[in-house]
Amino acid sequence: MMIEKEKMLSGQPYLAFDEELFKERQYAKEVLFEFNSLNPGEVEKRNKLLENLLGRVPKLFYIEPPFRCDYGYNISIGENFYANYNCTVLDCAPVTIGDNVLLAPNVGLYTAGHPIHYEPRNKGIEYAFPITIGDNVWLGGGVIVNPGITIGSNVVIGSGSVVTKDIPSNVVAAGNPCRVLKAITDDDRDKYFRNLKV
């Protein structure tokens, strides 16, 4: 018989208030309490805490406090990663983030979900599906990524978007629900700078 943690990690319905899972969430909260309370200049100490909590961290990464997650060990981040203030990752399932990814303030990556029908929901049943984000992605302020979503590489997601479906590579997408607005082309390389009047 599978224990609740095994169910959670395999995408099956599970009881979130299982004792083992509760202890693991409490441990993550304690680590993050310390992380979020450190003096701003103690970057190395903050990074060391995250190196021991998260599943995979690169040599070059920076996460602004405050930062929140459920477990930590399900989070894998690539090189040159930056998350701005108030990033929340509900990592009940794997969250895999590629290289050169930028998260603006208040981004939420939510692998966890609850049943629509109230009876199983009231019993504490949850489910969790992985989130995957490719390389060279920028998620704007307040973006929410829902369970089971894959975002391709070289993508920009506009501020305030709620991502409910997979997003292909090389596009700008935005909205609630988030949808593709345009393909990113070589013409976009210098577009912002051409519009500046210096």
UniProtKB/TrEMBL annotation:
Keywords: Acyltransferase, Repeat, Transferase. InterPro entries: Hexapep (IPR001451), Hexapep_transf_CS (IPR018357), LacA-like (IPR039369), Mac_dom (IPR024688), Trimer_LpxA-like_sf (IPR011004). It comes from Bacillus benzoevorans. Its EC number is 2.3.1.-. This is Acetyltransferase. Residues 5-59 form the Maltose/galactoside acetyltransferase domain. The keyword Acyltransferase applies. PANTHER family: ACETYLTRANSFERASE YJL218W-RELATED, GALACTOSIDE O-ACETYLTRANSFERASE. It is an enzyme of class 2 (transferase). GO terms for molecular function: galactoside O-acetyltransferase activity. It comes from the Bacteria. Belongs to the transferase hexapeptide repeat family.
